[in-house]
């Protein structure tokens, strides 16, 4: 229970929704509904869960691979983010109250997961978080599972709050507002992707 609670705290502190996935989640909640937004956020949380496992279990081979090739992985992720941002800019009008189909929800989950998993520096973030929360050597699998589950729950809480807040204003959003949001969020996502690529290249 102690490690579960610490994991939730880490997820709440270090899992604040920012960046491209945060923008995508907001937009998808507005245009496709609650489940679309949650699927986008949980896709990111699932990637965080995987990285938490790698950090907590000390999977050296996987950790070394991710850090060794983090530039290439991050560059691929930055390119995907840019492409996604451009596709949003090209979308003019969308139905605000459209409900996402099952295939779309799966697609939203997968795209968020892929974007999040192409950020290997997340491992470093968790290692730092473990140090701050005084998590030393984990002596059992149960402790590790509790910690990772807590991190997953903590990040999911954030995504749930974000989606709930967007739902409060969703009915007031018109088609014209969606078009403007496409330009704003699309531009933000492109800049974030370009930032990742530039950071890698420099």
UniProtKB/TrEMBL annotation:
It comes from the Bacteria. Pfam families: LysE (PF01810). Keywords: Cell membrane, Membrane, Transmembrane, Transmembrane helix. It comes from Clostridium estertheticum. The chain crosses the membrane at residues 7-26, 38-60, 72-90, 105-133, 145-169, 181-201. The keyword Disulfide bond does not apply. This is LysE family transporter. It is found in: Cell membrane. It is a multi-pass membrane protein.
């Amino acid at each position: 229970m102690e490690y579960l609670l610490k994991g939730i705290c880490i997820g709440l502190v270090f899992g604040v929704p920012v960046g491209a996935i945060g923008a995508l989640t907001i937009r998808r909640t507005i245009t496709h509904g609650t489940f679309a937004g949650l699927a986008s956020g949980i896709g990111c949380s699932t990637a965080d869960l995987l990285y938490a496992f790698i950090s907590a279990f000390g999977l050296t081979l996987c950790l070394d691979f991710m850090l060794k090739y983090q530039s290439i992985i991050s560059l691929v992720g930055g390119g995907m983010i840019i492409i996604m941002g451009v596709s949003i800019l090209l979308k003019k009008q969308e139905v605000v109250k459209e409900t996402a189909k099952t295939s779309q929800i799966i697609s939203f989950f997968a795209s968020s997961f892929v974007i999040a998993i192409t950020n290997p520096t997340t491992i470093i973030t968790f290692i730092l978080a473990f140090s701050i929360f005084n998590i030393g050597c984990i002596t059992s699998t149960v402790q590790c599972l509790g910690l990772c589950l807590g991190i997953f729950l903590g990040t999911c809480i954030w995504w749930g709050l974000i989606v709930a807040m967007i739902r409060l204003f969703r009915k007031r959003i018109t088609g014209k507002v969606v078009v403007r949001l496409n330009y704003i969020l699309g531009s933000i996502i492109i800049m974030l992707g370009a930032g990742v690529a530039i950071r890698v290249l420099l």
